[in-house]
Amino acid sequence: MADLIDYLQFVLAPQALNGLSLGVAVVLMALGLTIIFGLLDVINMAHGEFYAMGAFLALTLAGLGVGFWALLVLVPLLMLPIGWLAERWLIARVFHSRDRHILTLLLTFGLGMILEDLLKLVYGPNTLRPENPIEGGTEILGMFLPNYRLFLIGFGLALIAAVWLVVFRTGLGAMVRAAAFDKDMASSLGVPVRRVYAGTFAFGVALAGLSGVLLAPIYSVFPTMGRDFILMAFTVVIVGGMGSIQGAVVAGLLLTQVQALSSLYISPVWSDPLVFGIMVLVLMVRPQGLFGRLGHA
Amino acid sequence: MPEATSLRTLSDPGRAGPVSRLSRLAPVHWLALAFLAAALGFAAVAWATGNGFYLRLATEALIFAGLAMSVDLLLGYTGLLSLGQALYFGLGAYVSALVLRDVAASFWLAMAAALLAGALAGLIGGVIANRVKGVYFALITFGLAQVAAKTVYNTRALGASDGLIGIPQIRVGFGPLSLDTADPLSFFLLVLALTVAAYAGLAYLMDAPFGRTLAAIRANEKRVPFLGFDAWRYKLAVYVLAACVAATAGALYPMLRGFVSPELMFFETSGNAVITVIVGGVGTLIGPVVGSLLLTALRSVVGSWTEHHLIVVGVIFMLSVIFLRKGLVGALLARLGRRGDQGRAAR
């Protein structure tokens, strides 16, 4: 019995909590992706590079003496115009084409390529390690947990709740959902659809940048850092149902637990194939994912 | 383009004879012939100057052109974007490498084994992927390839992250004759011949009723059943066909490089194939080939003065998506078509 409690306390629970802190981070990224898809029907393949941009911006600004708390506000604000311009200059160009799903996917894929190489050009290919903004740890039920991870879980959950409230409980959110549901009707009711589209894309990009700021102290910062992470975020969005906020949250927390526990019981190297395998299975059984779409919510 | 070909053959079916036979050849095939002539010219120059490096580079471009053709069968002809075609390319490469290293140093056995593996994997992958459409198809193909790539990456028996090395160079027998894969010129000519054969076979098939049905699926899948065709079956068939093309192209890779690595299956490989098709010309079989040679040359040239060639490739790719929807070959064909129309009007 004592062995079992020890096992739960020292092996299983820390792993699950590690999984949770990663899960919150993945959900933040998936949230941006799923909002962009739910409204614009655009698969943003450059999302991982926007995440990396956020991390590098944070690093640069921190080097100039900007504090961590200011970064949490400043970096998303700086990412907003970048996202806005990307939507106006690129997405909007092919938005009314018949093949716009494929074309926007290809455009954002190209954009991601260019951004990644630009980051390499500016910062070099090396891995950078930012300072931990919240030092120390806390003992909970005999487990020692780094404070920064606890902060990440709390802040992330609050942010996810805030996004959900804005989308489903405010006038702005209603406007955005109306534009997603029926753009002609929304437009004739006075919703500035074009600006809503650009704004939503910018918002999703800002969320990606914010994830970059939050995760930089845990994982190192390097130009291709978005790649592995974006795969996970895409998987989460697909399993949860493209465009669904609830789906992204549920699938994000679930899949990162699968990842954390499978690396404990099987082997860390097999957790990725397992997670992708689950995605393929879900798509086979329920092609639209576990939850519905934002536009139909 | 298949549309142009069919219009031409429909509008003047009566004129027979050798002259009209040649004139019936669609402009896109003339482009392919010009390309073949250029490739042979290149081979002659490279051989005369003893430049094995460029021959090897061109061979690699042709091998990846096979992968791009496979992407184009799905995207250009059927309207299905596959983000995981490297799965079949890598599968072919690994099967071929294993056969050559552990079973027998036989070209034909390696090719047959890769083809069989590609067909089987394509059947399984096709049944799974064809359950969904549009972006979901793109994402499920991406997911399938990711599962396969990570599995290979983690399997020690397949060399894990190092891949397989020490693939022997072989002699390829054609009855009494044989050529050596170690010789850059012979192997280039062999791969060129296989590419031409693949082009001709696929071009014929895409002009045949099979290809017309695919075009109908691309145009409006919902109406295809009303014409009496089972769209699902055709989509599965073209998926398996594309997998076979990718696998046989992949089978050539270890013969060229002497090794295979899990990178061949990764998303970069699939993504590059999609870029190749878009830049070269989607919906024509010569487009992927032209695109592959162009991008390989570009990477080699740009790569010699900066390591940041992704920016250049990315910009070209995005410009093609926005301004040249049919790629370079499509733009060229449009020009040729206009000139042809003017010529006919003048007469």
Automatic annotation (TrEMBL), chain A:
GO molecular function: transmembrane transporter activity
Pfam families: BPD_transp_2
Transmembrane feature ranges: 20-43, 55-82, 102-119, 150-176, 196-222, 229-253, 265-285
Cellular localisation: Cell membrane
Major localisation: membrane
One term under GO cellular component: plasma membrane
GO biological process, one term: amino acid transport
Keyword Metal-binding set for record: no
Keyword flag rRNA-binding: no
Keywords: Amino-acid transport, Cell membrane, Membrane, Transmembrane, Transmembrane helix, Transport
Topological type in the membrane: Multi-pass membrane protein
Family designation: Belongs to the binding-protein-dependent transport system permease family. LivHM subfamily.
Stated name of the protein: ABC transporter permease
Organism: Azospirillum thiophilum
